[in-house]
Design brief:
5-stranded mixed beta sheet; Purple Acid Phosphatase, chain A, domain 2; 33% strand
């Protein structure tokens, strides 16, 4: 079993993200952009936990790629901020296609500041919401079991 703490759209407000990661003690940390430099604070706080991160539309001189593939036990997760795939609160088709093309069972994205835990085209869609800027601050705890089953909890900060 693998636990991943997933954050997005921190926009420089990192205290709640770091506190949540400290409480849940994940096996993997994932940051989905806006601001990709915030992920470096996760690396500094948790140097022994693998960290994956991508840039977002507010990252003017990005440190990270626009997308990546994260191994989570028996499944793979396609991670991106989402803006390059035209995601919205109601639309994620191109993101799902990109995940399918890469053989991923999970597609994680941010950008909309709205949490999502859904299925589309055989892909688990996860948006942790915003951990830094908005009315409702949230993050996602994703658990991948040894048999490939995926569970996602959207948690308040």
């Amino acid at each position: 079993m693998i636990k991943a703490a997933v954050f997005s759209d921190t926009h420089g407000n990192n205290t709640l993200m770091i506190d949540a990661a400290r409480r849940c003690r994940p096996d993997v940390l994932i940051h989905l952009g806006d601001h990709d430099r915030d992920a470096l604070e996760l690396r500094e706080e948790f140097p022994d936990i693998p960290l994956y991160f991508v840039c977002g539309n507010c990252d003017l001189m990005p440190l990270a790629p626009a997308w990546d593939i994260v191994p989570l036990g028996p499944v793979k997760a396609f991670i991106t901020h989402g803006h390059l795939y035209n995601v919205s609160r109601w639309q994620a088709d191109s993101l799902v296609y990109a995940a399918q093309e890469q053989g991923c069972q999970i597609a994680m994205y941010g950008h909309t500041h709205s949490a999502v835990n859904d299925q589309l085209g055989g892909v688990t869609l996860i948006n942790p919401g915003t951990a830094g800027k908005g009315r409702e601050l949230t993050w996602a705890l994703v658990t991948v079991f040894d048999n490939g089953a995926i569970a996602c909890e959207i948690k308040d900060l």
